[in-house]
Write a structure and sequence with these properties.
The protein has helices spanning 11-22, 71-80, 118-133, 155-163, 183-196, 213-223, 255-260, 267-280, 290-297, and strands at 2-6, 26-31, 42-45, 60-65, 84-90, 138-141, 144-146, 168-171, 177-178, 180-182, 202-204, 211-212, 230-233. By secondary structure, the protein is an alpha/beta fold. The chain folds into 2 domains: 2-146 and 181-204, NAD(P)-binding Rossmann-like Domain (Rossmann fold, 3-Layer(aba) Sandwich), CATH 3.40.50; 155-179 and 207-250 and 266-297, UDP-galactose 4-epimerase, domain 1 (Alpha-Beta Complex), CATH 3.90.25. Helix 2 links the parallel strand 4 (60-65) and strand 5 (84-90). Helix 1 (11-22) crosses helix 5 (183-196), helix 2 runs parallel beside helix 3 and helix 4 packs across helix 6 (213-223). The longest helix has 16 residues, at 118-133. The radius of gyration is 20 Å and the shape is globular. The relative contact order is 0.13.
Length: 300
């Protein structure tokens, strides 16, 4: 296939571009060329909000819109495209209001989520544009994504603490649940959608097995053959100052995904692969100074 991937230089978009290139497809990436490009891709060097006619004469079998954050992003790309066969937008679980019963299913209404604020409502506006103007498109709503090329300081932060034999500070009692989805499974799901053309055009994705914060931290330390010295932090201290996830537990119903793609990568395998990537790409991880806050406010 000839595939267009928006972005293509960090985490999900970069992994997606390389995954489909390695599968033998002809992959174009659309970005501003501000970071190194992956081998084997065709660069369309421009801002997605100033594409002009660069795409009009290229027919794509598949458009994977990864780097999409609002309606303007979607409209500008859609209006710039020429011929294309399949369109898949990567949205977010942030489109579900926190007040709905869980697990969130695709049939539930979208709306403002106090924990995600504008990020969620902007994704909703992008989804609505896709529904109206590209009715055959598919929308994928993931939870937290993980695995190789994760440049966000999530599991990377836990790995750093494990390498330095530091204690790990966990909010409250550590029982809050987290749901993940491996970035390679996301690409596999995209391929399944293209192959099977399922009737449902909005699909939650995620590992059906959730883990508590306690379990996740122990899993990350275990990748290095270590056991964490866990310290619990009271709820009166802002969680995001020392821990890489929001104080918000949510779970997606992924039944539709499982009907399309029953098997997913175990989380422990994702963490092993994430650490292998991290060891050789430390400088590519977004820096957040959790340790400085911990040193000043949590350590006795």
């Amino acid at each position: 296939m000839r595939i267009l991937v928006t972005g293509g230089t960090v985490f999900v978009s970069r992994f997606t571009a390389e995954y489909f290139t390695n599968c033998g497809h002809e992959v174009y990436v659309l970005n501003r060329n501000s970071r190194p490009q992956s081998k084997g891709v065709h660069l369309i060097n421009c801002d997605r909000n100033d594409i002009g006619r660069r795409l009009k004469n290229i027919a794509f079998d598949l458009v994977i819109d990864v780097a999409v954050y609002n309606e303007t992003d979607t409209a500008n790309l859609a209006n710039a495209l020429g011929d294309f066969e399949n369109y898949i937008m990567i949205s977010s679980s942030a489109v579900y209001p926190e007040t709905l019963p869980q697990p969130f299913s695709e049939e539930m209404p979208t709306g403002f989520n106090v924990h995600w604020e504008d990020y969620g409502t902007n994704k909703i506006s992008a989804e609505k544009y896709v529904h109206k103007h590209i009715p055959d498109a598919y929308i994928i709503r993931p939870p937290y994504l993980c695995g190789k090329m994760n440049n966000l300081r999530r599991e990377a932060f836990v790995f750093e603490c494990a390498e330095s034999n530091l204690p790990f500070y966990i909010p409250k009692d550590g029982k809050m649940k987290l749901q993940f989805f491996d970035v390679e499974d996301l690409c596999r799901l995209i391929m399944k959608i293209v192959e099977l053309k399922p009737d449902t055009h909005i699909i939650n994705c995620g590992n059906p097995t959730t883990v508590s914060i306690n379990e996740w931290v122990k899993l990350c330390y275990g990748v290095l053959g270590k056991t964490p010295d866990i310290r619990y932090v009271s709820s009166d201290i802002e969680q995001r100052m020392y821990f890489p996830f929001r104080d918000y537990e949510y779970i997606l119903d992924v039944t539709k995904q499982q009907n399309i793609m029953p098997d997913v990568k175990p989380l422990e395998v994702s963490m092993v692969e994430s650490y292998e990537w991290f060891k050789n790409n430390r400088d590519n991880v977004v820096q957040k100074d959790y340790l400085n806050f911990i040193q000043k406010n949590l350590r006795s």
